[in-house]
Amino acid sequence: MPELPEVETTMRGIAPYVCGQKIKQIIVRERRLRWPVVKEIADIKGRMIESVSRRGKYILMRLDRGTLIWHLGMSGSMRILPSGTPPEKHEHIELQLGSGLALKFKDPRRFGALLYTDTDPLQHRLLSKLGPEPLSHDFNAEYLYTACKNKSAAIKSVIMDSRIVTGVGNIYACEALFGAGIRPTRKAGRISKKRLNFLVDSIRDTLRDAIEKGGTTLQDFTQVDGKPGYFGQSLQVYGVRGPCGVCGTTISKQVQGQRSSYFCPKCQT
After folding, report:
1. What's the Rg (C-alpha) of the chain?
2. 36 is an active site residue
3. What is the pTM assigned to this prediction?
4. Which CATH architecture does the domain made up of 141-263 adopt?
5. Any catalytic annotation for residue 57?
6. Is there a catalytic annotation at residue 259?
7. Pick the catalytic residue: 3, 6, 91, 175?
8. Could you tell me which of 42, 35, 180, 161 has the C-alpha nearest to residue 110?
9. What interhelical angle do 193-212 and 4-18 show, nearest 10?
10. pLDDT tens digits for 225-256?
11. CATH T-level fold of 4-123
12. pLDDT value at residue 2
């Protein structure tokens, strides 16, 4: 499932090709995504794409009037190809641009989405309650300590709660907790501010490293140019079946909240 680094990689990849371009045509081949693509989306034909940004796992495409809100879901990806390139299987949406190129959205599992708003997109129901960005100054040890205070929930569940901090998915939560030496099952309210400071730094370092390497390819994710993400080659605990690269202890796997947690029983306490 595309997480924050994959969405950021996608956003950066499409931005140079779509910003400043007029939408010549929008082709919707399949409306039955996570939320149905409304027929009124056809009205964006002729509008200019002014900027592209990211909020959490959403890509915001601001037009000269209104904003497109994209979500990659569990298997979504975007490619930039010449207009007229035959559509691939599961290619549901195509934005044809004035440059002669096209933005193509492919999503085999159809959990992705394309929404439109003509008001402030940050106040949209899907974005308005999101917590701070993990790479922003608003996400710091003081903030996380306050958010964790008196919480009996596991720390991994807390940092994966998009209302507390947005965009930290399962893979990167496991990796960041390993980097901070904190076991994913430890109760959030019992972790000191000093250790949470290490965790904040580890979350940032993990995400920045993943963005630099183009994300993680586990199943469906590829970059805009079709190349895989290479952070998967740097994973220290997630999906590891064997010894810890630091101490040699066998990596443990445990199910938390219907997701697999990987950790080192010795390095993480």
Report:
1. 20
2. no
3. 0.89
4. Orthogonal Bundle (1.10)
5. yes
6. yes
7. 3
8. 35
9. 40
10. 555 444 455 789 999 999 999 999 999 999 99
11. N-terminal domain of MutM-like DNA repair proteins (3.20.190)
12. 78
Q: Domain residues of the chain, as ranges?
A: 4-123, 141-263
Check: CB of residue 92 under 8 Å from CB of residue 110: yes
pLDDT digit string (tens) for 14-72?
999 999 999 999 999 999 999 999 999 999 999 999 999 999 999 999 999 999 999 99
Catalytic residue, candidates 54, 55, 57, 106? 57
**How many residues are there in the chain?**
269
What's the rounded Cα separation, in Å, for the pair 89 and 87?
A: 7
Which tokens belong to 169?
A: 């998915």
